[in-house]
From TrEMBL:
Organism expressing this protein natively: Rhodanobacter caeni
Protein name (database record): Xanthine dehydrogenase family protein molybdopterin-binding subunit
All copies of domain Aldehyde oxidase/xanthine dehydrogenase a/b hammerhead, residue ranges: 214-305
Matches recorded under InterPro entries: Ald_Oxase/Xan_DH_a/b (IPR000674), AldOxase/xan_DH_MoCoBD1 (IPR008274), AldOxase/xan_DH_MoCoBD2 (IPR046867), AldOxase/xan_DH_Mopterin-bd_sf (IPR037165), N-heterocyclic_Hydroxylase (IPR052516), OxRdtase_Mopterin-bd_su_IorB (IPR012368), TAT_signal (IPR006311)
Alphabetized SMART domains for the sequence: Ald_Xan_dh_C
Length: 748
């Protein structure tokens, strides 16, 4: 990895002319910064969130957030390119590595927020990256004004050229040298008005699509240092277990095997920042030798307290907690008086929903390439959070903030798994022990067997309906194991990974109570795509259908009556719930699926809606039953995320999340017995095949002028309950709905 050029902020934001003749513009940052020098010539590699324009007018834009399949490598650069008035056909996009400088021993993040796959990339970048593009455009206009003898405010930019009122044109490439000598304005140049957008709101294919489908895309697992040792691991089956016996003689006798080392979790570190379980590492000159050596190890592991746990017992424990009279671990919300409302009940309904443990099952297993030199660490790692990975490396090495270089190629799936960095800690520990570069590779079996899983949960909901058929009471109790245990979160906030204070129908029912019951488990838990919305939306939206069934009412009518007239409700976490937008997406999917025929249709129709952080989503699904065979005939999804940067990318995200949610609902569950995970591959954890899924996902996107909201997992929560509601109708079930996994697996 090449060194970096140190520049003051002023010079950093100026045009840099050199052998490459490049114009480079970055985010305004206080103090000096490290300029990724790859933008100055072919001999450099590191890149940052800058614009480069060469003398031929070619434009290079860096995408700062890791792309885990969410399309941010396309959408973020297009925000910059639109403000720059660049010709998109001449833009090249490059993924960025970590940007950090040393601020008196503390990290200063040069590039701002760097976090992928959480739905926040575009909202966080919306203002900042537009300013980056506007600054580059301003410099070019000043250079063109000098060239053409026309005031800059009378010039305009279009597709990589500056145009004068009399029609004269100059290309961006021809202005590089002049622009490099222009002092920066003390004021940030204004960004465009929406009426002038040319790329924002226009569809664009993924910039990496061709490389992906032709097999040319480079992932972290493809990278290698020539002198790196390959490391493979055998983790203890129990996270709290110990190594009882080891014999390494046969492993070390394998040609190419160099060392066998042991790793232990650091007791004083949070989950996700250290080794996930005790492990033995085999380091060899190549992958084949490492795997052969691993197979020759003679190991005996001793279980800890988790050796008696089972997923069945966990579910029974959850049911028992909800059956008992003990106080909840957390009273999440308590509006009105649920107990008093019960005395006015004309009808009551109660239902229980059970959801299983889930694994992330990323396409690219965990891996990390690390080189530790005397005063520098260089890593290539598939992470969703480079800054969090940096914190792990810095703690283990003690290096100054700017001496840690992290490169993040396109990531082969995240789903929240790569917000944790246990595998980074493992690679760095091993590199320190052997004093050589290490290429750590997890196998698929390890990925399944040593995950940070989503906890199973049990939801018990009761409703109170008065004589006027109004829903006047809602009491929801949830039992699960928090994903935030052992992560430095106070006990009174552990519920925040499991439920939301403002989730539907909070604020819509006068007497509303939400309780959470904490369950204990040694099975590691962590962030998962769509949580906590995924589990809660299924329970809530399924239960609303049950209320409609009890009242012999159209489920759409039940929802519309509950949501009421268009209005906004303040949310406890900030912002507001726009019920008009939520009703709109609900009606859009109802119209598209021809909901007016819901009672007469020979197939079952199901519907569901939800809101997440200022975005709104609804699904409608049509399902048929031939005997016990379930067929998903149609799937319709409508989303409202405010202003859409890339409509094609948004449709892809919505369709992908819908299929992911349907696959999860139909097939997926993690089980464990005697503390050991029983799923080890895609055969035992089968993602849905094409025959099980709808031929198409019909996506409706609502055009809006509000600032963009996130869409990464927006379509996850409502697909499963819409499917379950369709199955409920298709199978003419007239008894209380069974838990999702039990019912759907039986029907399949």
């Amino acid at each position: 990895m090449s060194g970096q050029i140190r520049l003051s902020r002023r010079r950093f934001l100026q045009v840099l002319t050199g052998t490459a003749g490049a114009l480079i513009v970055g985010i305004r940052t206080a103090g000096a910064v490290d300029l990724p020098p790859a933008l100055l010539g072919g001999t450099f590699q590191a890149l940052g969130p800058f614009v480069q324009i060469d003398s031929d007018g070619n434009v290079l834009i860096g995408a700062r957030d890791p792309d885990t399949g969410t399309g941010v490598a396309t959408s973020l650069p297009r925000i910059i390119a639109d403000e720059l008035d660049a010709d998109w056909n001449r833009v090249s996009v490059i993924p960025l590595g970590l940007g950090v400088e040393n601020d008196h021993g503390q990290p200063r993040w040069i590039y701002g927020r760097q976090l992928g796959g959480t739905g926040g990339s575009i909202p966080a970048a919306w203002q900042e990256l537009r300013q980056v593009g506007a600054l580059a455009r301003w410099l070019l206009l000043q250079a063109a004004a000098r060239r053409l003898g026309v005031p800059a405010n009378r010039l305009r930019c279009e597709s990589g050229t500056v145009i004068a009122p009399d029609g004269r044109r100059v290309t961006y490439g021809s202005l590089v040298e002049v622009a490099g000598k222009i002092p920066l304005s003390k004021n940030v140049p204004p960004v465009k008005t929406p009426a002038r957008y040319t790329l924002i709101g226009a569809p664009a294919g993924d910039v990496d699509a061709h490389a992906i489908v032709t097999g040319q895309a480079s992932y972290a697992i493809d990278h290698h240092y020539g002198d790196a040792l390959v490391a493979v691991l055998v983790h203890c089956p129990w996270p709290d277990g110990t190594l009882a016996r080891i014999d390494t003689a046969a492993a070390l006798a394998v040609k190419g095997v160099v060392k066998v080392l042991q790793l232990q979790p650091e007791k004083d570190q949070p989950r996700g920042e250290t080794v996930i379980a005790p492990a033995v590492a085999v380091l060899a000159q190549d992958t084949w030798s490492a795997l052969q050596g691993r197979d020759k190890l003679e190991l005996e592991w001793k279980p800890g307290a988790s050796g008696t746990e089972s997923s069945y017992a966990f579910e029974q424990q959850a049911q028992a907690r909800l059956d008992g009279d003990e106080a909840p671990t957390a009273r999440v919300r308590n509006d009105g008086d649920v107990d008093a409302a019960g005395k006015k009940a004309a009808r009551r309904l109660e239902a229980t929903y059970v959801q299983p443990w889930l694994a992330h099952a990323t396409a690219e297993p965990m891996n990390c390439l690390v080189r530790l030199d005397k005063d520098r660490a260089s890593l290539v790692v598939p992470t969703q959070a480079p800054q969090r990975a940096w914190a792990v490396v810095q703690r283990l090495t003690g290096l100054a903030p700017d001496r840690i270089d992290i490169r993040v190629p396109r990531v082969g799936g995240g789903y929240g798994r790569r917000l944790d960095h246990d595998y980074v800690a493992e690679a760095v520990m091993l590199a320190k022990l052997v004093d050589k570069p290490v290429r750590l590779l997890w196998t698929r079996e390890q990925d399944f067997g040593h995950d940070f899983y989503r906890s199973a949960s049990v939801h018990r909901i009761s409703a109170i309906v008065d004589r006027k058929r109004n829903l006047i009471g809602w009491n929801q109790r949830m039992a699960s194991a928090s994903a935030l245990v052992q992560r430095g979160v106070p006990d009174n906030r552990l519920w925040t990974s499991e439920t939301r204070v403002d989730q539907l129908p909070a604020g819509l029912v006068p007497n509303y109570r939400s309780d959470w019951y904490a369950l204990d488990s040694a099975i590691p838990r962590g962030p998962m795509r769509g949580m906590p919305h995924l589990s809660n939306a299924f329970a809530v939206e399924s239960f609303i259908d049950e209320i409609a069934h009890m009242m012999r009412e159209d489920p759409l009518k039940t929802r519309l009556r509950l949501l009421g007239e268009p209005r906004t409700l303040p949310l406890a976490g900030g912002g507001a719930l726009d019920l008009g937008r939520l009703v709109n997406v609900l009606k859009l999917v109802a119209d598209r699926i021809e909901w007016k025929n819901w009672l007469r249709s020979v197939n079952g129709l199901g519907i569901a809606c939800w809101h997440i952080d200022g975005a709104y989503v609804a699904h409608a699904i049509e399902a048929s039953m031939q005997g016990e065979k379930l067929t998903i005939e149609r799937a319709v999804c409508a989303v409202d995320v405010g202003r859409v940067v890339n409509p094609l990318g948004l449709r892809g995200q919505v369709a992908g999340a819908t299929l992911d949610a349907l696959s999860t609902a139909l097939n997926l569950a993690v089980t464990y017995k005697d503390g050991r995970i029983q799923q080890h591959d895609y055969k035992s954890y089968p993602l849905a095949g094409m025959a099980q899924l709808p031929n198409d996902v019909e996506v409706i996107t609502v055009a809006g002028d509000r600032s963009p909201a996130g869409a990464s997992f927006l379509a996850m929560p409502t697909a499963a309950p819409a499917l379950a509601n369709a199955v409920f109708r298709a199978s003419a079930v007239r008894v209380r709905r069974l838990p999702l996994m039990k019912e759907l697996l039986r029907l399949l």
